[in-house]
Specification:
The protein is of the alpha/beta class. Helix content is 33%, strand content 25%. Helix 13 packs across helix 14 (400-411). The protein starts with a strand and ends with a helix.
Length: 498
């Protein structure tokens, strides 16, 4: 009997929301099934039920036609299920090889831990993936892309019959994506059941055989990948035709004075970086992974030390010792890793939005104006159409797109005086409908006179959103081009220059 995974009548209820509503479909071994849907469609909830992290309120999960029920994730792993989530589940203080074999460290004939075998077994997996990673390296010292590959290798090592990938390529370079797809095709040939969640349409058509589209907790439609197209899938996902995302944007047409001037910026990671940003202008930082784009953003936000050069904000030299200094001066950052660096996941929407302006909504030095806090939070929820039953909802329970909107709401509240907004991978892991909303938000913010810097690994985003594009490679600028002049080929060529 070939491997199979089936969801039969699955429903899941949370206070104020029906996350899943009678979901039924079957995934066959030897095929890759894409799970598509906007953020909040219920995809992550379904994966959590599949992995034993959540229990359904109705319905059942079947493996190879047999009903199963998992009390915890370990029970699902024992049953041959592995889920690779967007949020990496790694032990950063431990080595790569220890992370690859959690709870399964090899022992010698005396029953003692065999470190030499652990090293050789881990090295064999790393070489299978063709990655330049030392098995003894601490995971916390690896870049985000390699941490993601460790997570994928960990699932591969378990030899599970059912493997789900949740936005696996978001932090990966093209070279690493090629490696991953090669492994997925091998797993497919071995008869594994592969569930693949991604918002990148090109990947869906490249790697999958079947597609299940979800919306608002319901199954909308099932497709054979070879028998559909991108426009049909988007319409099924968002319930409408969003047309050409970029040509429909209402852009800022007037540029003001220079709000930011960077002169020969040097940090431990970048060198001699110079550019300007005007009020009402969107400037893109383009480049491959490791080019130094995020490092420039962190330096401008006071998160990394500046060792040389000069930063001028509205013509005045500034030296930020911390992000607190940058925020006070009107510089805001939506970081690359919103969960780790941008949000306090265990706090409410309201708490996250008012966090940088608590002192402004405090009377007499110690009495917090709760009504004002609520006003700011509700205004952000309304402005950015954040899907939530309440401003008191804990942020960890929101979808990725709504979490990103909370960060935008924080930096653009009435109590903030943001002059420069830096967006680092603002649409990573976000569905096409919400992406369109964020693209228009970027343009709307520029219209208010804010200077915007956008960093994205998707070249089409940078080329279509930015008025001017600064291209980087290996910590320095290799070229500058306007939106009208830019093509993917020309920007990529500059991004590969030494």
């Amino acid at each position: 009997m070939s491997n199979s995974l089936e969801f039969r009548g699955i429903s899941k209820l949370y206070p104020g929301v029906r996350a899943l509503d009678d979901i039924s479909f079957k995934a066959e071994g030897g095929r890759v099934l894409a799970l598509l849907g906007e953020n909040g469609a219920g995809k992550s909830t379904l994966l959590k039920i599949m992995s034993g992290d959540q229990r359904p309120d109705e319905g059942e999960v079947l493996i190879n036609e047999t009903p199963v029920s998992f009390v915890n994730p370990q029970a699902a792993i024992s049953a041959g299920i592995s889920v690779i989530y967007q949020e990496r589940q790694l032990m950063s203080a431990m080595s790569v090889m220890e992370n690859l074999f959690p709870g399964a460290l090899p022992k010698n004939k005396f029953g003692l831990f065999d470190k030499r075998k652990l090293y050789s077994d881990a090295l064999a997996i790393i070489e299978k993936f063709g990655l330049p990673i030392d098995p003894t390296e601490k995971v916390g010292r690896l870049n985000v892309a390699y941490q993601q590959m460790v997570e994928i290798m960990k699932a591969y090592r378990r030899n599970s019959d059912i493997i789900a990938f949740d936005e696996p390529t978001a932090p990966l370079t093209d070279a690493e994506i090629t490696i991953l797809f090669k492994v997925i095709r091998e797993l497919k040939e071995e008869g594994k059941v592969i569930i693949y969640v991604s918002h990148r349409m090109a990947e869906i058509f490249q790697i999958t055989d079947d597609i299940v589209v979800m919306k608002d907790g319901k199954l909308v439609r099932q497709f054979k990948t070879a028998e559909t197209n991108e426009a049909e899938l988007i319409q099924a996902m968002v319930g409408r035709d969003i047309g050409d995302t970029y040509s429909n944007l209402s852009r800022c047409t007037e540029r003001g004075d220079v709000v930011l001037e960077v002169k020969n910026l040097k940090t431990p990671y970048v060198r001699d970086v110079s550019f300007t940003v005007r009020k009402g202008e969107v400037v893109g930082l383009a480049g491959l992974v490791g080019a130094g784009r995020t490092e420039v953003a962190r330096a401008l936000f006071g998160a990394d030390p500046v060792t040389g050069g000069e930063i001028l904000l509205e013509g005045e030299p500034v030296k930020f010792k911390s992000p607190r200094d940058a925020i006070a001066a009107g510089v805001a950052l939506c970081p690359e890793d919103r969960k780790e660096q941008g949000l306090v996941l265990g706090r409410t929407i309201q708490d996250n939005i008012v966090m940088p302006v608590v002192d402004k909504v405090t009377k007499y030095g110690k009495i917090v104006d709760r009504n004002r806090m609520s006003e700011l939070a509700r205004a952000a929820v309304s402005k950015y159409s954040i899907k939530t039953p309440s401003i008191d909802k804990v942020v960890v329970e929101l979808s990725g797109g709504n979490q990103q909107k909370v960060i935008l709401g924080r930096w653009t509240s009435e109590e903030m005086t943001t002059k420069l907004l830096i967006l680092d991978e603002p649409t990573k892991g976000i569905d096409v409908g919400t992406k369109a909303e964020i693209y228009q938000t970027v343009c709307d913010l520029a219209k208010t006179g804010i200077g915007v810097i956008i960093i994205s690994s998707e070249l089409t985003e940078v080329i279509n959103l930015a008025d001017n594009i600064i291209v980087m490679h290996n910590g320095h600028v290799t070229g500058t081009v306007t939106r009208e002049e830019a093509t993917e080929e020309s920007v990529l060529a500059m991004a590969m220059l030494d």
